[in-house]
Specification:
Layout: H1 2-85, H2 87-94, H3 101-119, H4 128-150, H5 158-171, H6 176-189
Helix pairs in contact: 1-3, 1-4, 1-6, 3-4, 3-5, 4-6
Length: 192
């Protein structure tokens, strides 16, 4: 009885002694393989990174080529908005004769808001700075019109209001609408 257990133990020990070199060989080859893969990745990583960077630049260039015309058109529309809400051109276009100051005020406010709403989607294509300029022009124009009406008597005509607005603009050292257009031009020049 002792002999079969001893025989099984010897056989197991003998088998494990025979498989140990094979296991060590497998372990050596696995470690060597992992080392080769690591060295290959280490050597090819700069190449792969460069290829990825080139693809990213190509994608950005393609997108830029497609969006550049849209961005230029957006800048054009923003400049047109500023020109259309400029009281000097808007008052000529709206023809204030025959209106009361309050009627003209409501017409100008409606016109400015409609122009702004018509161009609100342009903020997607212009810079944040330019869109802030557009909002500021809108708010300043509305403020100018509202303050002009407050300074007039209740029975004032639209012509009186137009004169008040134009006089106020002429007293400014710099035309705010030209300043806004200049800021937009600077931003647009940065595109190129």
């Amino acid at each position: 009885m002792l002999q079969p257990v001893f025989y099984d133990l010897c056989l197991t020990f003998s088998l494990s002694m025979q498989t140990l070199p094979y296991l060590l060989d497998i372990l050596k080859y696995t470690i060597a393989g992992i080392g080769v893969v690591w060295v290959a990745l280490y050597l090819f990583k700069p190449y792969l990174d460069r290829a990825e960077h080139v693809q990213l630049l190509e994608l950005k260039r393609t997108i830029s080529n497609q969006t550049l015309p849209l961005r230029l058109q957006a800048y054009e529309r923003v400049v047109l908005f500023i020109e259309r809400v400029n009281p000097a051109s808007m008052l000529v276009r709206l023809n204030a004769s025959g209106m009361s100051a309050t009627e003209l005020q409501l017409l100008i406010i409606t016109e400015v808001r409609n122009e702004f709403q018509h161009n609100v989607t342009q903020q997607i294509y212009v810079s944040h700075r330019v869109w802030n300029v557009v909002k500021r022009v809108k708010e300043d124009t509305l403020s100018l019109v509202n303050s002009a009406v407050k300074n007039l008597p209740p029975d004032a005509s639209g012509t009186d209001m137009a004169k008040t607005i134009l006089i106020h603009l002429s007293k400014l050292e710099q035309d705010p609408y030209e300043i806004a257009t200049g800021l937009i031009r600077q931003d647009m020049e940065e595109l190129f």
